[in-house]
Amino acid sequence: MAFSGYAQLWADRRVRALLVAAFFARIPAMTAPLVLTLFVVRELDAKFVMAGVVAAASTVGAGIGAPWRGRLIDRLGMRRAIVPSIVAVAVLYPLAAMTTSPLVLAPIAFLMGLFLIPIFSIVRLSLSVMVPQDQHRTAFAADSVIAEAGFIIGPAVGGILVIQAGADVSLALIGACEVVAGLIFWRLDPPTRSDAAPDRSAGTTTSAPVSWVSSQVLFLFLISAGTMIALISTDLGIVAELDDLDHVGSVGIVFGAWGLASLVGGLLYGALDFSVRPTWLLLALGVTLMPVGLADSVWVLALCVIPTGFLCAPTMSAASEWIAKLVPEQRRGEAMGWQGTAFTMGGAASSPVIGAAIDGVGPWGGFLVGGSIATLIAVVAFAGQLVPRWRPDTAGHLTSSGAPR
Fold first, then answer.
1. Can you give the pTM of this predicted structure?
2. Which of 117, 121, 144, 189 is the most exposed place for a label (fewest CB within 10 A)?
3. pLDDT digit string (tens) for 49-64?
């Protein structure tokens, strides 16, 4: 385990600027789901199942939009692909803040997801281009750590904003911050193709479409979906538990413990000199999530989310690392977009189920259902990878001594 790789990354001015921009851009993005949930439950006086429906609408939109925008980035470059998102966000967030019914909010949330600024795809794609392949693990782990730092700050700020100014005002402020984030990325314009890649504008030669879809990549998408199910269930479960304890103001303590644990886990994973299969990481994530619902106080809840938080960043980093190695560069933006779709569709499919479990049996039901689904997906992926023709190729995933893990 060596931490010098992080110093090498930080010494690169382009990588440093990208990671700093990603940090500030992710704070409003990390705040939005919490504020949207509280807006539905508190301002619109609806149940958590309706909050799950609204969250599902947003994630379905994001699931549809991510591959489309990733494909546009591959073809047109980042700047031209991001402009529609900046314009849409400037309109949709204030509009959402003015709604008076979850049924009206749901289609707006769908559009919010559809035009979501693709921070995840842009950052991971740019890192895969700017950083040598043998440093991808460290780079993706660093990005996950940056994301967790934003996650620690975002929900805490969101909880304070909702209490002090109301969820409607908070939504409008988040929209304004996301517009600023989009403009920062537009100005930064990080590279999404290496110098050796074919010129997008070259029309004199046509090459056959590059195939990138394989059973190995599809299993990684499935694992990504399972990871988001675990995250969504933790997110909704924490909010529901704190609301049940009448301690919503303590959301920063619990989300901070969860995010800090993930930050530490990401740092340690990025310092490893070998890859860990994301299947194993997802299995551990699901198993540690199920007992979180036993917590009966704010501080016990904060302690219980630490093990599952420790596994969040490594699981997401490992999946992105393997996809970057399996997919050729000229189609990597689209693949990262489809991974984003897998994340969001996992959240979309599970949010109403988790919300119904919370409404039916209490907050502990959300943790149990989400952890069980994530564990089942990990088992299915592991069983599928035992089939010889579906077995992951470990040729590119060796330790420093050449031994596969």
1. 0.66
2. 189
3. 788 788 778 877 877 7
